[in-house]
Structure formats: structure tokens, C-alpha cells
Backbone:
């Protein structure tokens, strides 16, 4: 018995160590499952540190101001569209909505409305665009990809028609201009505020839980009494409203309203930020914080590449790899979580 005691103790220790390792692994996987934005947060921090040490002007206050302005529009559109993608839908017209809202804002103010009310009118007009997208998608049953592709071209033509294809000078100055995007970090502060509010909505409210349930299993959500059509329509309207507000902020910042602003580039940057941040294209899972960090990641990547003199063509290559890796991580973590149950 005494001779075998050390062996038994050694086996017990090995079993305990293995069990402890499995527990740590389980906890790590559960943490990543609850916080799918953690990988992109870590990568963004590492990327920032890298460019601070390799790109000469990356750490200057002037560059941070430029980076903030560049990131803000994409971040606002991304956080606004996250709930839509969590519900299982997407909107390809957000870039054109971004250009549409400032034009409505301009003409509303030109008609005599105060600046703030003109902003409200511009955002409400975008809500109507979202309402149209939502109704056609949910009531008629056409894929949101097709519906919003049509809206993309519709708004592109409408923007050119109502503006005669000519840029307009953005109205407003002083405090209004500084608050509405003219200040160096004003637009980014709006983006941070929206991120906090929408993350709380998604994770702490009934509307958020209904959105997740609708995207995860629409039939099951409907049978549970959730008004899935309204959930999706509301998400379409919300996404369009945020895209429109981002467009007004950008127009005030650059003091010009361009009917060709936004477009497919901005749309796919926002979608890329959402996907990289950990939201599934199929719906049912997502994080507003991750979408915001995804936009920051894309901004840091492009800015760092530019300052480091890297070929601009490499940016799309890196973004493509990032999207694929993000999806592999998200799906892989989900499978690991199910394996531990």
C-alpha cells in the first residue's frame, strides 16, 4: 500500500491538473462566447501599438483627430445597423441614405426651418426609407438583399435629381457646427454615445432580446408571441436613421453636401466592421461594442498603412482576411461552447 501511494497520488494530481485545464478552457470559451468582440479588441490594441512604433506621425494629436473623423461615420452606421443584422437582415442602401439625409436637411433649412428641426426632418426622411425597406422585406417577402439593392439605386438617382448633381454648402456655424461634427472629436463622441445606448438596448431590454430571438429562430420567436415583422421593420428604420444622422455630421464637418458621398464603399466598410466585430450575418448573435471596435480597427489599419507608406491595394486584402478569420473564430467559438454543454 505504501509503495503504491506515491503512484496513486501522482495519478490524482495528473487528473486534477487535467480537470483544472479543462475548466480554464471552458471558462475562456464561455468568456469569448459572451464577449465575441474580445478578439478584435485585442487585435486593434496590438495594431495601434505596432503603428505607434513603426509609423512616424501615427501618435501625433493631429493624426488622432484625422483618425477620429475617419472612423466616426463608419462607426455610427455600423452600430446602428448591428441590430438589423442581429435580426437576420441587411441593408445595402445605407451609403446612399448617408448622402440623402444631408440633402433633406439642406432643403428643410432652406425652406425656413431652424437648424435643429431641419436635422430632425432629415433623419425622419431616412426613417421612411427604412420603413419602406422593412415593409417590402417583411410583408411582401422579398429578400432584404434585393430590396435594399433596389433602394440603393433609387436613392442614388434621387440624390442626383434633387441636387442637380451639384454639391451644396452645409448650413450652420458656431456651436451648432461644433456639436454636429465640426469639432475635432464631436462625431466620434456621438458614435461612442450611440454605442453605449444601443449595446444596452440589445443586451438589457425586451426589444433587444426580441431582436436576438427573431434573428436566431424567426418561427420560434413568432410562436412565442414576438411580433417578428415589427422587430425587423424597427431595425430597418433604426439603421437608416443612424446612417442619415452620420451623413449630416459628415456634411457639417466638411462644410459641403455631396450627392455622391457614401455609396457602396461606406456601406461595405460598415458591414465589414459589424462582421469583424463578431456579429453573425445569419443573425441571432451580435455585439454593438464589437461593431464600433471593428470600425476603429479598419480606421487604424488604413491610417497606419497610409502613414507607413504601404500600398493601398493591400488594405482590401487585409480586410478580406480579417472578415474570414472573424467568421471562423465566431463559428468556432460557438461550436466549442456547444461541445462543453
Residues:
Amino acid at each position: 500500500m505504501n509503495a503504491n501511494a506515491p503512484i496513486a497520488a501522482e495519478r490524482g494530481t495528473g487528473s486534477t491538473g487535467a480537470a483544472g485545464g479543462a475548466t480554464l478552457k471552458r471558462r475562456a470559451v464561455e468568456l469569448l462566447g459572451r464577449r465575441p468582440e474580445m478578439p478584435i479588441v485585442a487585435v486593434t490594441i496590438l495594431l495601434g501599438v505596432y503603428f505607434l512604433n513603426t509609423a512616424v506621425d501615427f501618435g501625433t494629436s493631429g493624426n488622432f483627430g484625422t483618425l477620429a473623423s475617419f472612423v466616426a461615420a463608419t462607426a455610427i452606421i455600423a452600430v446602428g445597423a448591428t441590430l438589423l443584422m442581429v435580426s437576420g437582415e441587411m441593408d445595402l442602401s445605407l451609403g446612399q441614405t448617408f448622402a440623402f439625409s444631408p440633402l433633406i436637411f439642406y432643403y428643410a433649412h432652406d425652406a425656413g426651418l431652424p437648424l435643429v428641426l431641419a436635422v430632425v426632418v432629415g433623419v425622419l426622411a431616412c426613417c421612411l426609407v427604412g420603413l419602406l425597406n422593412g415593409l417590402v422585406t417583411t410583408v411582401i417577402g422579398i429578400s432584404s438583399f434585393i430590396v435594399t439593392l433596389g433602394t440603393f439605386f433609387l436613392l442614388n438617382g434621387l440624390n442626383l435629381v434633387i441636387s442637380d448633381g451639384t454639391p451644396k454648402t452645409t448650413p450652420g456655424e458656431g456651436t451648432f457646427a461644433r456639436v454636429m461634427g465640426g469639432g475635432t472629436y464631436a462625431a466620434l463622441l456621438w458614435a461612442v454615445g450611440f454605442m453605449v445606448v444601443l449595446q444596452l438596448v440589445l443586451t438589457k431590454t425586451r426589444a433587444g432580446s426580441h431582436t436576438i430571438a427573431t434573428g436566431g429562430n424567426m418561427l420560434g420567436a413568432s410562436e412565442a408571441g414576438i411580433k417578428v415583422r415589427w422587430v425587423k421593420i424597427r431595425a430597418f428604420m433604426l439603421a437608416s436613421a443612424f446612417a442619415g444622422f452620420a451623413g449630416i455630421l459628415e456634411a457639417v464637418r466638411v462644410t459641403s453636401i455631396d450627392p455622391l458621398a457614401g455609396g457602396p464603399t461606406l456601406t461595405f466598410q460598415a458591414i465589414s466592421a459589424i462582421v469583424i466585430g463578431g456579429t453573425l450575418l445569419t443573425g441571432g448573435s451580435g455585439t454593438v461594442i464589437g461593431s464600433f471596435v471593428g470600425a476603429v480597427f479598419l480606421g487604424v489599419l488604413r491610417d497606419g498603412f497610409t502613414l507607413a507608406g504601404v500600398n493601398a491595394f493591400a488594405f482590401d486584402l487585409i480586410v478580406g482576411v480579417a472578415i474570414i478569420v472573424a467568421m471562423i473564430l465566431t463559428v468556432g467559438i460557438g461550436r466549442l461552447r456547444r461541445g462543453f454543454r
